[in-house]
Amino acid sequence: DSGVTQTPKHLITATGQRVTLRCSPRSGDLSVYWYQQSLDQGLQFLIQYYNGEERAKGNILERFSAQQFPDLHSELNLSSLELGDSALYFCASSQAAGEVDTQYFGPGTRLTVL
Amino acid sequence: AQSVTQPDIHITVSEGASLELRCNYSYGATPYLFWYVQSPGQGLQLLLKYFSGDTLVQGIKGFEAEFKRSQSSFNLRKPSVHWSDAAEYFCAVGLRDMRFGAGTRLTVKP
């Protein structure tokens, strides 16, 4: 158990809909990262938040957004969903702000868009 | 451009045999290096990491990796594979952001 929790575990929705994925980092970790894992794209970094502020952006679509709240949990919002958004979404946390450090991964949320 | 390459998409080894998973990177400076393992339906778990110092790094579950600067490689090894090692293995590198390789799926034959 990494100490990172993600909810829900599975999510099935329809195209055009909007969903919210939730992540609680390990105790003491200030950074939260979101990743998308799909068969064709592999593991892609989406975005990082550190102590409530956006720190780094990766291959995140404009239809996707995230935020980190004062209690450090984070939410990833996916809107206008398309079939191609079906994937595993991982959250990870670390103590690091700038330089990379060990990231601890949650179990993931499997999103299926029908 | 920064990149991480895991040349082997799928490797099959017999239980008890030795294992080496390859990882090569292209980076402007020497990055930090990681190996993660992902079991089916699970998140990624850190096996080991290299930041500096001794280029032979020991990790969990009997794994080790060797950093070779001249070859820009960070290969993962295990002397004797167990059936429970069957999983997907990811090499990751970075300084300010982490880049993951495409992964190598390990199958262990009884």
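qc> The longest strand of chain B covers residues 87-94.
qc> done
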